[in-house]
Amino acid sequence: MSGLRPRPINADVVQAWRAAFADTPEIEIYQGSILNQQVDAWVTPTNSRAQMNGGVDAVIKDHLGAGIQVRVRRAIRSQFGEALPVGSAVCVPSGAATPKFLISTPTMVHVAENVSETLNVALACTAAFQAIHMQNEKAPGSITSVALVGMGAATGEVPPQICANLMWTGYTLFNDYYFHDYDDLRKTVLEQLGDIESRPAERVRIKPPQTQGS
Predict the structure, then answer these.
(1) Theoretical Cys-Cys bridge with 113: which of 39, 108, 128, 173, CB 3.0 to 4.6 Å?
(2) Phi, psi of 147 (to 5 degrees)
């Protein structure tokens, strides 16, 4: 299929990112298409069966070719079975020079699912960074830069500020906590954000636990 174009950039998401990540200078906020990002890996929000027919998934599949969906689904079957749980991810070779890898992480179980009342964005973002960590354990230095989009901010209907804060949480947990596996990751994120419904939007950000050894 051809003729797919990225959705218009959501300026509200960009503004929310800039506020949420104001104290993390290593993060560059870019307003534009992920297809223009010259990094080692792209992260695409997907559904649990990696049906790459809409949103960023479809744009990336159109750009990299249909074979990318085959590789993603093969990795899911090999590592997880029939479906990729929310709070997990797969990292596969992209088949291109840039990026070298594609990381798929579900923000939803089904296609076009409203996830605005869930913690799926934090789970997906944390899982994406865990996939980077696992890839670099296998091949040190293989992923040194990565590009992400606003997870759940379009099809998932997550408000921009909540999306940005949950992604900040995922990034912070990745940096400050060691996850033994994806089950450990999901347990930690849910424990940290279990009372999110009672928090004002501006206080979604958390203080992560102390770093744990392996």
Answers:
(1) 108
(2) -120, 135
CA distance 65 to 62: 5
> What is the Cα 56 distance to its own chain's centre?
11
- Helix count (H) and strand count (E) of the chain? 6, 4
Q: How far apart are CA 52 and CA 202, in angstroms?
A: 33
The pTM of this model reads 0.87
Distance CA(212)–CA(214), nearest Å, equals 7
Per-residue pLDDT tens for 145-184?
999 999 999 889 999 999 999 999 999 888 888 898 999 9
Q: Give yes or no for a contact between 54 and 68, defined as CB atoms under 8 angstroms apart.
A: no
Residues 41 and 162: their CA atoms lie apart, in Å, by 24
Tell whether 206 is covered by a domain. no
CB-CB neighbours of 176 under 10 Å: 13
Whether 50 maps to a domain, the answer reads: yes
Which CATH number fits the domain that encloses residue 53?
3.40.220.10
